[in-house]
Please model this.
Amino acid sequence: MSQTPDESQQPGYAGDVDPQQAWEMLQSDPETVMVDCRTEAEWTFVGTADLGGLGKEVAFVPWNYFQGGLNEAFVEQVREAGVREGQPIVFLCRSGTRSVGAAKLATEAGLGPAYNILEGFEGAVGESRHRDVDGWKVRGLPWRQG
Model:
């Protein structure tokens, strides 16, 4: 179940937001950052969210690697990307699964409030056997290829 961001919440795993809610958080709060926790192959070949119109950049930190294996330095790399304690973070993956783990781990490390973006960048697989049902791209939010 999705929960609406609440500014009175203490830092921590704050739950889920849909792509539109994440976009609105990024628009309205200059402190909110996006961490895309997909793999480099996904960023390169599928595309990425484009926050340039907001004067922001996406932090790209892989949760796991293309050939398998978790990124043991994930939290350290999130911090190296400039994410600070107390700063709202929206985590994005392909379909909203890896980003849950990323948000929870960030919370355990003292970062956040941390949100998982439901549906992710590409969303669920539809009847067409393509990821064309929901997600950041399908909802028409800014993105770019390559």
About this structure: The two ends are 32 Å apart (CA to CA).
